[in-house]
Amino acid sequence: MTTKVLILLTIFILSGKAAAQSIDDIDWLNSNIRECEGVVCPENSYVDFQCQCNCINECPRNFETDQKTCQCFCRDKECQENYYFDPRTCECKCDEQTRCYYGLTFDPVKCECPESKCQSINKECPVGTVFDHSICDCKCIEDVQCPSDSFEVDPRTCNCICHNVTCPESGYELDPETCACVKEQSPISCPPNYVYDEPLGRCICDENNSDPCPPNFDWDYQQCQCVCNHDDTCHDGYEFNSTLCGCSCIQKKCEPNFIFDSDHCGCKCALFDDTAKCEKDFFFDQINCECIPPISCPPGYVYVEPLGRCMCDKDVDSCPPNFEWDYEQCQCVCNHVDTCRDGYEFNSTLCGCSCIEKKCEPNFIFDSDNCDCKCTLTEDTAKCEKDYTFDPISCQCVIYESLVC
After folding, report:
1. Number of domains into which the chain is organized
2. Can you give the pLDDT at residue 15?
3. d(CA 106, CA 299)
C-alpha cells in the first residue's frame, strides 16, 4: 500500500468505519484502496474518497496556496507611491527613506511628503544656494558669518555685502571689502592694459603694452586684450569657452541637497556630517546625500560606510573542524569529501556522511538514527480485530495461524 492509501485508511478509521465489524464495511474499504492505488499527492495534502488531492496547510496572512504543490507563495503586488513591496511579509510598506523637497520633512505616519506651498517648485538658485520649500526662496547651504554689523548676507550669492552705509556725496567712495567710506583715488585708476589720457579724460588702450599673451591667445588692439586664437570641438557634457580658450563643463540642474561641481563636471552633495543634522542613531551617507538608519548586515558581513553597502568580513578566520573560510561565499565551507558506505551519502553542510532517507511501507517511518524503516504501531495502538494478532515485523494485523515466528 502507498502512503496516500494509508491516509485514506486513516480517514476511514477516524470516521468510525474501523469500528464496524461487518464484511460489507471491509469490502468498501478494500474497494476504495484499490481505486486510489495510483494517486500520488504532494506534501501537505491528502487523498479524499473521490481519489482527489486536497491541500491541508494554512498559509500566513497575504499568502496564497498553490493548489498543484500545496505550497504557500506570495504574489507580487504593485504598491502606491512612497511604498515598496516586502516579499517577506507579502505586503506593501512605507518607504521612510523617501526624499522630499529641501526644507520639507517626510511624514512616516501618512507616508507622504508635505505639499509644497511655493508657486514655483523648480526655481533655479545660484551656486552655493538651494531652494528651501519652507520659505519658498533660495537659501544659503552653509551659514555665512560676516565680519561686522556693517555687512549683511546677500541671499542670491551668499556673500557679505555692505548694509546701510552712506558716504558723503563727493570726495569719498565706499570700499566694498571693509564697508567703510574712503577718499576717492587720484589719479583715476584704469583697468589692466589701459592708461589714463588726461586730454580725453578717459582710459584708452595702451598701444605700448608689451606683456605677452598666454599660450593659444593673441593680442587684439581693438578689444585691448588677449583673445583666443582657435576653436576646439568638445566632447559630450562640455562646450568651448572662448574666455578660457578651451572646453569647459556645461552646468546642469542637480537633485535637492546637491550642487554642481564644475571641477568634476557633475553634481556633488552639498551637505556634510555636521550640517545634515541626522536623527539619533542615523548616520549621513555622503554618496546619496541623505540620512539613513543603521544597517544590519548578515552573518559574516560588515557595513562599509564609504561604499554604502555590506561587504564580506575578511578578518573572519574561526570555522568549525573540517571547515575553512571561503571569501567568495563569505561563509565556512567543508574542506574535504569522504567516501561513504552503502546507504549513506556525503553531506557538505554537515561535512560528513549522512543516511540516505528511503521511502517506507505503510505504518512505517524512516529512522535516521538507524538508517532504516521502523514500525509506528504497537499491539495496543494497532487495535486488531477478533482472530487477528499484531505482527511487529510486518507492522500489521494478521490471522493468528499465519503469524511467522
Report:
1. 3
2. 41
3. 32
